[in-house]
């Protein structure tokens, strides 16, 4: 069975976005990119919610081909363009991904139980707070790659609000970066 992996950047007070939806507070650098690659490189499928999909689809399909693209942009663009791409949405009719082709639309979170049973590599969810919460609450997330950024936002949208019940986790790995970010990889206990 495929595993579902969550990759999220959070503030010290547990928010994924500030009150205005801004995520520019994330202390992104090469160290953080390398940690993210630990999650993505083992997966051959990516999951986005509608809002995150719209942001990602506007950038990543051609990001690696742009003049001055960083190594991260080149490698992540190549990875995501070659991955299975799922978009969780009940409103979209299609989900194009540049010249690469369309993403598969999933209207019901429960469908991911069947998708996890299909042959293939693991799946990674990036961003997408509502989708992340729903997948966590449905018990479908197996591993958590979380980066704790040294900032207190004081409001916004928390990752773990509205989760019902407890989930026991075990720390598999952790790193501290020069930016003060602490990255943790947790697996279900």
Q: Any key phrases for this structure?
A:
alpha/beta; 12 strands; eight-stranded mixed β-sheet; Dihydrofolate Reductase, subunit A; 189 residues
Can you walk through the features of this model?
With 189 residues, the chain is α/β, with parallel strands linked by helices. Helix content is 27%, strand content 31%. The protein has a single domain, classed as Dihydrofolate Reductase, subunit A (3-Layer(aba) Sandwich). The chain has an 8-stranded mixed β-sheet, sandwiched between helices. Strands 2-10 form a two-stranded antiparallel sheet. The chain has a two-stranded antiparallel ribbon with strand order 5-6. The protein is globular and about 40 Å long. The protein starts with a strand and ends with a strand. The mean pLDDT is 95.
CATH class annotation: Alpha Beta
Rg from alpha-carbon coordinates:
16 Å
Silhouette: globular
pLDDT averaged over residues? 95
Unreliable spans: none
The topology string of helices and strands comes to EEHEHHHEEEEHEHEEEE
Proportion in β-strands: 25-35%
Distance between the termini: 17 Å
- Spatially, the strands of the biggest sheet line up as 7-4-3-8-1-9-12-11
Biggest sheet character: 8 strands, mixed
Helix content: 25-40%
């Amino acid at each position: 069975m495929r595993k579902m992996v969550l990759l999220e950047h959070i503030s010290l007070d547990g928010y994924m976005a500030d009150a205005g939806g801004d995520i520019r507070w994330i202390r992104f650098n090469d160290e953080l990119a390398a940690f993210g690659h630990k999650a993505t490189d083992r997966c051959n499928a990516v999951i986005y919610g509608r809002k995150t999909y719209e942001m990602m689809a506007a950038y990543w399909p051609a990001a690696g081909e742009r003049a001055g693209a960083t190594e991260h942009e080149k490698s992540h663009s190549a990875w995501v363009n070659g991955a299975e791409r799922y978009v969780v949405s009940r409103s979209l009719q299609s989900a194009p991904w540049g010249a690469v082709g369309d993403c598969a639309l999933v209207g019901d979170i429960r469908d991911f139980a069947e998708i996890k049973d299909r042959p293939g590599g693991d799946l990674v969810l990036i961003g997408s707070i509502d989708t992340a919460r729903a997948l966590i609450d449905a018990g479908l997330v197996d591993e958590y790659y979380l980066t704790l950024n040294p900032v207190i936002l004081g409001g916004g949208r928390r990752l773990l609000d509205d989760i019902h019940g407890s989930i026991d986790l075990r720390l598999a790995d952790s790193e501290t970066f020069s930016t003060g970010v602490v990255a943790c990889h947790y697996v279900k206990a």
